[in-house]
């Protein structure tokens, strides 16, 4: 099925006969594969008598071989999946199996993509970036201070390089354009919190998604912002190059060296916010972040710090 979609990815019409010849199957077998793609992957395919078949819109598919080669240059292994439960779940399985790390897991589609606070990450086939990197972390979870914020910086830098100059950060792990979410970060840890552990860095970026009725918040994508189809392979590789540099810097210098840069790209810096942690709501003004990545708020004339986790941050009055 994936080979068939590669033939159709340009969005132009292709006859059933030509597709069958390219695949070495009958025209009826081509039609069965197309029906399967519609039913299982949710892909819209147009059929016109005398012209053939085409996708409702062009598609950028992941290039397994090119991605493996690119990431080998970073010292990473890379696996690309057509459909998977979750790239974070697979990266965690790889880490726990004793396989060589760092290992990057990418997918065309997630059946059970995960976001922060137990939310589902909507993952239509072939439209966005579903990206998880598994790392070995010696020295335990204390080495993770500020890491998720640094990952956000790598995402923002990548998006700005791609032309989304207004992309910015929202503490702790969201990347926004204005009030709309464009990308998110989810870190998960396994192993000994005081010694050797593994961390999985999960990143989702909306790239070529034009519509979705299942997202429960304001969102946008690269294609909606700039009006053109993006090569998801180029986005993945640009992100990996930026992330690799930040990871090396974090290991050497920690988050403190990047704190000012992070604050300069925080869209809610200096704004009045409401932070919810369980049943408690704290209202204050964003002062910035600490060297450990904790949010610094001015609350009733004094400075208080709040760590990430199961918290929600909103602008006051929203």
Key terms:
about 325 residues; Arc Repressor Mutant, subunit A; BirA Bifunctional Protein, domain 2; SH3 type barrels
Which architecture name of the largest domain does CATH use?
2-Layer Sandwich
Q: From the helix content, strand content and strand pairing, which structural class follows?
A: alpha+beta
CATH domain class of the largest domain: Alpha Beta
Radius of gyration: 21 Å
CATH fold node name of the largest domain: BirA Bifunctional Protein, domain 2
Q: So, the CATH homologous superfamily of the largest domain?
A: Bira Bifunctional Protein, Domain 2
Sum up the overall morphology in one term.
globular
Poorly predicted regions: none
Tally of alpha and pi helices: 9
Total domains, how many? 3
Average pLDDT, to the nearest integer? Answer: 90
Amount of helix: 25-40%
Spatial separation of the terminal alpha carbons: 45 Å
Number of strands: 14
What's this entry about, in short?
The protein is α+β, with helices and mostly antiparallel strands. The chain contains nine helices and 14 strands. The strands form three sheets. Strands 3-4-5-9-8-7-6 form a seven-stranded mixed sheet, with helices on both faces.
